[in-house]
Design goal:
It contains five helices and no strands. The chain is mostly helical. The longest helix has about 50 residues, at about 55-105.
Length: about 160
């Protein structure tokens, strides 16, 4: 029973596909130069002649084709020149980058301050000074009085 259903389904699909292909072919316009013959495309090339001579449109197309081939050759030559210039510039660029990287200072791994780079291993004072974090936890020592305060007191009392 399953085989029968499979065969019937396949044949129905083939019938529908063949019908669609026929209707699609009827939508292709006929070639007026072929005068009702088959729909095959006729090839026409440089050997196509009209009464033994090339037609003027063929001559024009051949001249245009030659001009395009010449322009294409010029573009290929320019492309090769630009590719050579590009390779020279790439070599110069890599040499300059090598000089730049050679002058970059490389920090000693033992002297890297992890607090200033990644906020690791910081004291509370460093967190406040560098990162502006936990400044309320910093305990500053009291300011001791100096001689300038004592001289200020004397000048205030005398005035």
């Amino acid at each position: 029973m399953k085989i029968r259903n499979t065969i019937l389904s396949a044949s129905a699909i083939l019938v529908l596909a063949a019908t669609g292909a026929t209707s699609a072919m009827s939508m292709i316009p006929r070639d007026p130069a072929n005068h009702g013959g088959s729909r095959a495309v006729q090839k026409s090339g440089p050997s196509a002649t009209t009464n033994g001579r090339r037609s003027s449109s063929n001559t024009t197309l051949l001249a245009r084709n030659k001009a395009l081939q010449t322009a294409n050759k010029a573009l290929v030559a320019r492309n090769k020149a630009l590719a050579a210039e590009n390779q020279a510039l790439a070599a110069e660029n890599s040499a300059l980058w090598a000089r730049i990287h050679a002058t970059d200072p490389k920090p000693d791994p033992g002297t890297v301050d992890t607090c200033s780079t990644s906020m690791v291993d910081c004291t509370v004072e460093q967190e406040c000074e560098i990162w502006g974090y936990n400044c309320d936890l910093v305990v500053y020592p009291p300011v001791e009085s100096t001689q300038s305060e004592s001289s200020n007191e004397g000048s205030e009392g005398g005035g």
